[in-house]
Amino acid sequence: MRKNRIDVITLGCSKNLVDSELLMKQLLANGYTVKHDPDISEGEIVVINTCGFIGDAKEESINMILEFAEAKKERKINKLFVMGCLTERYMEELKQEIPEVDKFYGKFGWKALIADLGKSYNQDLALERSITTPQHYAYLKISEGCNRTCSYCSIPIMTGKHQSRPIEEIEEEVRGLVATGVKEFQVIAQDLSFYGLDRYKQAKLPELIERIAKIEGVEWIRLHYAYPANFPYDLLRVMRENDNVCKYLDIALQHISDNMLKKMRRNITKEETYDLMRKIREEVPGIHLRTTLMVGHPGETHKDFEELIDFVKEVRFERMGAFPYSHEDGTYAYAHYKDEIADDVKQERMDLLMALQERIALESNEDKIGKTLRIIIDREDGDYYIGRTEYDSPEVDPEVLIRKEKGLTIGEFYNVEITGAMPFDLYGKVVY
């Protein structure tokens, strides 16, 4: 156990990661040594930032808390603090079930943690973070919360209503990150499409992205988690006209059949979804689309699932994930529907979708063979440098493997000819 060291463990999404990074900066400013997700925890204090989205995520968070609660019993750590989405949702239950935890904080209550350590929050560092990603890229959270009422989703329960950050504040944060060496920004929110409607009474995502794109030193901007209903179409012009806005869009569609879209309360129809996909492809040639689809939502028939399969075959998403419905207490679906579809049926449907996607992803990657693409190098791994194209977000999308023939620099861009393809990886060689 190392005195004055705090280990911060982050579970869940990149939005949680940003919260951990903000906290870590404040802890460092208060004189602590801070480690993020260490292989071996040696801090006298441990902070766990939890996820509470679906069953598997909740189970992972609880298991992590129990592991460190046991470590505290064995006096391997002195103090254990827990924050994040799970605690926002189940604060009282957790207090009763795991009394070894010194204190629980909600998703937005972590500033109190600093005070409970006898330290002070430094407002001058409010926009600064201790970046846990490779130095050349960072996540940029532009809003909190969500105003949508999707039947299955527990996120608004934990995060509250949508709150857009001021454009000027985001610009200031970007300039600060660029000054530290960040070149690539993953713009994240629970709902990018809604950005600005609460604060400015109009959709401001296109303007925000255009303004970030004009900041010197911003090489790549990539967009995550747009919502299909009331999509801000001017964003497509911004993507087309600005070379540093990646031709990539992460837009979670969940389903395609009108029956399911209505039950899921998605506020969009099958026809409108197809029109949106068509318009995006037409206005931004070469764009790569990432989506997430759900199977096994209450009421999903075999016919609904067949429509979903046909949709994936027709739209041919370059990047796609799928997950089975999880019956989450507090949601509309939990109150109004029975979780009637068997787990093995959900799994079978998900496996069929992902097998189809693997073939589509391979064909998409094979189309790149012989092309020269701009690649950023993320890391080294054995005999290879590992990089990404503008069409690939860190950790979730394909990587480009470049054999170590000449020395490359982490965080730099290179022109790479694609020489081989697998469903979820590419091979290439640097073109000098």
Describe the structure.
This protein has 432 residues and is α/β, with parallel strands linked by helices. The chain folds into 3 domains: 2-125, Rossmann fold; 137-366, pyruvate-formate lyase- activating enzyme, CATH 3.80.30; 372-430, Beta Barrel (OB fold (Dihydrolipoamide Acetyltransferase, E2P)). Helices cover 35% and strands 25% of the residues. The protein has 13 helices and 18 strands. The strands form 4 sheets. Strands 6-9-10-11-12-13 form a 6-stranded parallel β-sheet. The chain has a 5-stranded parallel β-sheet with strand order 2-1-3-4-5, sandwiched between helices. Helix 7 runs parallel beside helix 8 (234-241). The longest helix has 24 residues, at 343-366. The chain is globular and about 55 Å long. The mean pLDDT is 94.
Query: Total number of β-strand segments?
Result: 18
N/C terminus separation = 49 Å
Cα shape = globular
Number of domains: 3
Explain briefly what this protein structure is.
This protein is an alpha/beta fold. Helix content is 35%, strand content 25%. It has a six-stranded parallel sheet with strand order 6-9-10-11-12-13.
